[in-house]
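pinning this so it doesn't scroll away 📌
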Amino acid sequence: MRTFTVRPKHLGKKHFFDVLEDGRPYCEVSVQLTCTCNHAPFETAKTQYGVICHPVRLVMDRFANGALIEHVSPNKLVLEKRAQTRELVEMMNVRVNEVRFAENEGPLHVSAKYKIFEMCRLNGWEAVFEPRFKSGGRADVIITDLPLIIEIPVSETDESLKEKERKYPQGIPFAVFRPLKEEKGDCLGNNQIEEVEG
């Protein structure tokens, strides 16, 4: 039976929490609560994270009871696949669904990452950006649900991509996402995953 625990990381105007699975990092959660009420002190309730007013507590209770949003829990197979894929990445480098950048990335490369992030968000997939693999090498993105390693070449040669692929974990499909320039500016045009290696 897997056990999840929550550990406060930073508490301020915006609260950050680490969620641990069996004592190991699983994901990060951030929460920001604001309210326009001006209630008297006796209408507030003190918690270990500070002071929360009554209206905010009501809203949080409704969220917890599933009254305001639909909670979608991935099935067991998806969770297992995600966990297995994350095991391939160096522990300190696992930052789920957080778009990260390497040094000296151009606007075309950055825009492509956001495009992939949006694709993952719409499909409910989990992704790790700039993952460093235990086997060596660092990719642009790995989608843990599939799993699939994605590279975004802007000026790289096919030889350079093949050299990178040799360092990646074996058995994980490798795809190339080529950002296409529009005629005006550096915005992304009709991007697509152009080729997939076995």
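📌 and the second one:
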Amino acid sequence: MLLTYVGQLLLCPSCTLPPPNMAGNLYWREFTRDRSDDIDHKADAAFLAANFVDFFGTWLQQGQNSDVVTFDDLTKVFFKKDNYKTNLYMVADASFVTKSDRPDGDWFDGNVRLLNIVHTGSSPFSQSADEFTLCIVGSSDLTSDSDFLQVASWDGRTFRFYQASFDLELCFFGIIMSDLHG
């Protein structure tokens, strides 16, 4: 599938991105807010230009980056690189939920989630437009390409949410404008 290249926006002057390849599988999700299934739409050039403007959204449009769908592969992009600071955590997740009590419980793994906080600058969640923070969350299976993978991207003003869906498409889920620091 082809994407139109919409330009390179670097929120981190010391960070570099590979040259554009224009290939990718980027989508956005329309939440129906009723009992019907949500609808995934192919992200066109206008949607990319309006929404994929943070560091991670721009990074996804470069080369084959939108093909990275495992926690391990995404963590390796940033781990032990001079421009990025990483903090890796393991978080217990809903061990109190009994899967057998839930009719839709087959998909849920209540063991642990992995969290990698990647940032530039001196601390995460800076308000500087020259810095960014990524919260990368995955399942306990580091290399699974069919398990949970989400990214919350902070650009100093706005959170943007991305997720690798179970059919290996990267979806943009939304924006929250926020002032974290009061």
